[in-house]
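Supplementary Methods. Inverse-folding protocol.

Structures were first reduced to a discrete structure-token string of length 137. This string, shown here, constituted the complete conditioning input.
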């Protein structure tokens, strides 16, 4: 799949007392990129919950923190599907300072599961979502 890119600005609230991005906020940045990727394909997560009866939830995360981002940095967060399964997607994601041409500050893999909004049990990813994903490969 083509790599999706989303810009993020580091705000004061994202940092610790030393002005360095608090590690948990990288997860928020990655979540925003995946949400915006899905939105770029024409899917709003709240609408999917109501119309398709599905929601996406993080099942697992593996992250390497390589260099710190700091207050007021302009970042680029990338997301690329590395694996598709019947009821889950595995993303490879990275966070860079200003451009993916720069060395990554953080890299990781995130597996999201498609779950039934009512039962919270795993459920197959709806075909119309899979079709849109396949069209951007």
């Amino acid at each position: 799949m083509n790599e999706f890119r989303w810009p993020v600005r580091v705000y004061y609230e994202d940092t610790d007392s030393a002005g360095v991005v608090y590690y948990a906020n990288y997860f928020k940045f990655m979540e925003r990129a995946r949400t915006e990727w899905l939105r770029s394909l024409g899917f709003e997560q709240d609408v999917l919950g109501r119309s398709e009866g599905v929601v996406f939830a993080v099942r697992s995360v593996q992250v390497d923190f390589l260099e710190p981002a700091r207050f007021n940095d302009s970042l680029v967060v990338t997301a690329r599907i590395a694996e598709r399964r019947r009821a889950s997607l595995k993303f490879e994601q990275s966070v860079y300072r200003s451009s993916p041409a720069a060395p990554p500050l953080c890299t990781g893999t995130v597996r999201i599961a498609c779950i039934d909004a009512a039962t919270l049990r795993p459920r197959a990813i709806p075909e119309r979502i899979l079709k849109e994903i396949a069209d951007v490969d």
